[in-house]
Amino acid sequence: MILRSVAVGVLLSACCGCLGVEDQWFSPGSSEWKTVNPDFSITVPGRHKVLIGVFDSGVDYTHPALVPAMHYNDSELHGRAGLDDDGNGFVDDFLGYDFTGMDGFPFYAVFLKSTGTRDRRAEKFYLAHGTHVSGIAVRGCADIGIVPYRVLPVSKNSATLRRDGPAATDDAALLREGIGYLQRAVEHAVAWNRTKGPMIRVINISIMYMPDDSLGIPLALVKKYFAPLEKLMRTEAREILFVAAAGNDKKDISAAAARYPCQINAPNVLCVGAVDDSGALTDFSNFGLKFIDIFAPGQDILSAVPVETADDPKNAFDTDSGTSMASPFVARVAARMFAVNPSLGVAGAVRIIKRTAARRIAPVQAGHMKKPRYHYRVVDEARAVAGVL
């Protein structure tokens, strides 16, 4: 196991149960999920101090473990259907937004159920990912809320679903569509922060976009598509911390082909790789000195899955692995830091997360890097939150 971090004692209470490095593991044997006490009220004023925007495949906002974390837009929830009640440019955005279906339901099981379309394998893939990510992002602290966004380029109106999306005749167009959804979601988060109470201080993006010459998507084209989004992240969204998954190609992405959004070299982007329960690099995680900032637990992580697609609806939890699981862990740490110290800026949060991380060393495969050993940091939730006080 990872060596124990410096104890922070009473500061843990301010951290809402933050974990030291050796404890921050959501293993299948964990008992914490079993103590979930669902709060089925839609909103409790003042409950959430900080919000995390989850850009993903959608979230099962009916899951008992996630209901308390969902942050509803009261103006739209109690407003008039079909109208932009809060004047932010989005109609009926009472709970985040679904940019693939253009409505306020960021969870397309509603559509599948209403039409009778059934493909449980497709449902599990598309729905479970965002739900699993969200469970990790808010696990253990009622102060942190979720604003879910469905941004993966999969149309609700697609008759055929497959693991990597709907059949498309133009892969570049599908890529452009997906990046466009990301941009619109960032615009929504910026608008949200201008008009509402608790702010979206962190956005988790457990999605990776990469060039693929075999599909006719060269790096130059990916850069072109991402340029407007990168500009938005650097300007209007500069006070939001973007936490992104590094990808599961087991490559040194300092030298290999680009992986976006980790490739965006902006001060408010944190790229996250995955370690196992001993703190060692997983056999799937990308790594690299240039773009990957921090590592977090990402192998066999226990979290929520959609109730309707679970093998046991009364116990809708399962394990999954990937940098997709590591990224929301860091997003949660950052959100807790902002909750404890609302005046903390993005640059300060990034600096503290890196400074308080546990330092690790691992050998790397020959040919991947010039140095024979790779130095990396594993996030330490307890020390990071203590560091803001």
Written description of the protein model:
- This protein is of the alpha/beta class and about 400 residues long.
- The protein has one domain (about 10-385): Rossmann fold (3-Layer(aba) Sandwich), CATH 3.40.50.200.
- It has helices at about 10-15, 75, 110-115, 120-140, 170-195, 220-235, 325-340, 345-355, 380-385, and strands at about 50-55, 95-100, 145-150, 200-205, 240-245, 270-275, 295, 300-305, 315-320, 360-365, 375-380.
- The strands form 3 sheets. It has a 7-stranded parallel beta sheet, with helices on both faces. The chain has a two-stranded antiparallel sheet with strand order 8-9.
- α6 (about 220-235) links the parallel β4 and β5.
- α4 (about 120-140) runs parallel beside α7 (about 325-340) and α5 packs parallel to α6 (about 220-235).
- The longest helix has 25 residues, at about 170-195.
- The chain is globular.
- The model is unreliable at about 1-15, about 25-45, about 110-120 and about 155-170 (pLDDT under 50).
CATH H-level homologous superfamily name: Peptidase S8/S53 domain
Give the count of helical stretches: 9
CATH topology (level 3) name: Rossmann fold
Shape: globular
Q: What characteristics describe this protein?
A:
Rossmann fold, 9 helices, globular, seven-stranded parallel β-sheet, single chain, 389 residues, 15% strand
